[in-house]
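A protein record pairs a chain with a discrete description of its three-dimensional fold. The following entry can be read in just this way.
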Amino acid sequence: MKNIEGKVAFITGGASGAGLGMAKVFVRNGMKVVIADIRQDSLDQAMTGFRDDKNVHAICFDVTDRQAFARAADEAERVFGKVHVLCNNAGVNLFVPIEECTYNDWDWVMGVNFGGVVNGVQTFVPRIGKHGEGGHIVNTASMAAFLPSAEAGIYTASKFAVRGLSEALRLSLYRYHIGVSVFCPGLINSAIYESEKTRPAHLAVPENTAKSQKTMELLPKIHQAGMDPEEAGEKVLEGIRKNSLYIFSHPEFREELSEIFDEIIDSLPPGEAPAPRLEFERSRRQRLMQAKAQADKME
């Protein structure tokens, strides 16, 4: 999607961190942007940075609420018209060993990180397909979509899910001239460590399952060392223009990724499959490669 000037973007989790970085970069490049967030105070603060720019509109809602998502989409279309770019960026994290997590923890993190992406796709894909002008979807995963963490196990699971969904969507949505990217950043200067402030009351957990005070004290300093959100936003815009499947913003993971995929290849058993299985897999792969080629060549 090379021509983005005048196009409309809808960004969830848009009031801070990478989402706000995307919004600032998109506006500088001539786009109209809706920033959506669950926190009204964060939206108010974010909007002060746009100095009453008429090309930015804020909407407060919860991405796990499907009816609210539909209402937000209606509002975006009333304000700016057709939406072309959807950035499913809203996310939360939980720094608790996975064996200590509760069902409420699972429902909260998966509901926002994966369910919110599903809700965005279900809400906007029909609308983008209907207007026929094409578009692009960016789903924010994380390097956690490749690199697991025992201290953030639910987060890891949610980001692997976002990656898988994005790869599958790309093989389907090219038919409607909709590109799909999965954004996999490393550490970004954000306040995702404050995610607990947005946890709904009905998914609350006992105090003894919350993050330790020591962890809470370390997280702000760790995240301050992260990439500037606007630099991350520039990477996302570049990925949209190039129709990239993967948008990687941090170069420091090259060696680790190589080790992971080497381990996968080395773990495959030797020998060949029986002829009927080989024939099936050749046919499957041929269909996959044809769809991939169509998705990759889309502009």
About this structure: The chain has a mean pLDDT of 94.
